[in-house]
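Lecture 7, part B: from sequences to assemblies.

Below are the input chains for today's worked example.
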Amino acid sequence: MTATGDWIDDLPDAGDDLERSSTAERVADLLRGHIINGALAPGARLSEERLGRKFRVSRNTLREAFRLLGHERLLVHEFNRGVFVAKPGAEDVVDMFRMRRALELAAVRSGPQAPAEAVGTVGAAVEQGEGARAQGDWEGIGTANMAYHRAIGGLLGSPRVDETMRQLLAELRLAFHVMAAPRDFYAPYLDRNRAIYELLAAGSFDTAAEELAGYFDIAENQLVRAFTAPPRA
Amino acid sequence: MTATGDWIDDLPDAGDDLERSSTAERVADLLRGHIINGALAPGARLSEERLGRKFRVSRNTLREAFRLLGHERLLVHEFNRGVFVAKPGAEDVVDMFRMRRALELAAVRSGPQAPAEAVGTVGAAVEQGEGARAQGDWEGIGTANMAYHRAIGGLLGSPRVDETMRQLLAELRLAFHVMAAPRDFYAPYLDRNRAIYELLAAGSFDTAAEELAGYFDIAENQLVRAFTAPPRA
DNA sequence: TCACAGGGATTGTTGAACAATACTTCAATA
DNA sequence: TATTGAAGTATTGTTCAACAATCCCTGTGA
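Predicted structure of the full complex, as structure tokens:
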């Protein structure tokens, strides 16, 4: 411990590394993962007793985790009946797109004030998606698409928007599990994603916004149709 | 009970009327109210034991309520240290305005597609504020201002945006308690609120958006200055 | 001044208990 | 047959008590 402590300041912030988390949060993370990747089907009931036994946590802790995920709209809590995996409908998809339009378009248009690496993050997501396509990894394409739109939202440089986008896209992915999802749903959008990214990198933010708006119209339309057309046996 | 049950379908949905709520939610509502109106000072610590005794609820139930409010950013939960009333800083105010700009400006610009009564709700909030001013009810002016901006967000007709706006404005009100808040902070904005409303009613949505953007710049600037200027003894 | 070792207070988590509510089953009735 | 009603069962809602883990304060010693 010499007097010069400069190197300490130069250390990268430990950040969340040592931010211990409560059991409830870890359980919530676990459940969130299972919900997003489809292991827990929409509408499925989560029994407090059975899940508690499975995860080796008490009912009280489990209920705290439920509150977390309920607030994220991934679970719905019906009083005296239990908690269920949310089952978004067509109206929910429409509403999610309303919010996405507001946030993502604003983010793209705010491009000139975007943080330094923000555009690069978008590009990274584009390549991540193209890499997944090259390997026929459809699951990976979906994940990359989520990362792509989170990165778009990140152009605002707003922690609150980032958090909202995270939730919104998680819920959207859940909605995706409701319908009979063709595995290559997102593949057609990869080229469009790249096109928008190129515009961003070139500084043509308004044009990029128009392109993105076009994407929203098409993707929403396709999703809603997938919801309403087949009565879903 | 005749065979024709048509009239049942015609009945208005009972909706939330009989949606009983859990104790945790009622406690959360109670705490939220106290936080918003300033009864619980920012930074104050909420002892599980004492609050539980005060409200006559168990620690477990209280903790569920804490999770709710933590997710709304009104409380911060520090592991093994307890929960505290959030104490937003200047960066938080800046971030809240980033999100408000994205949502409210998008809402105003979406005016043509707005639900029927939405614009009227904005007008009602304007008059609510003017009424409060006439009576020198400064608290009422603040409340009316919140209602006004919630109504602006309501132009999108999106439940998710509505919910987000609710949280955002509650948090903003909390930030307001941090600084030495002049009681008539919002009074100067009443006329501007009316001007924007008139533009909405006239269908000049883009002009209204420009006016609103101007409001954001001025209000944010004033708030941030109030935060950073006086070191706040 | 600093380091460090108690000791007290608070949170984190559990498990059990009981009340309240929902779901199921089945008999009774029209 | 279809509907009502009355048990009985399973699950959630909430409380309580207990204990471990952690923090915070304080005093001691160097």
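Note for the exam: Residues 22-24, 57-61, 79-82 of chain A lie near DNA strand C (CB under 10 Å from a C1'). Keep this in mind when comparing with the next example.
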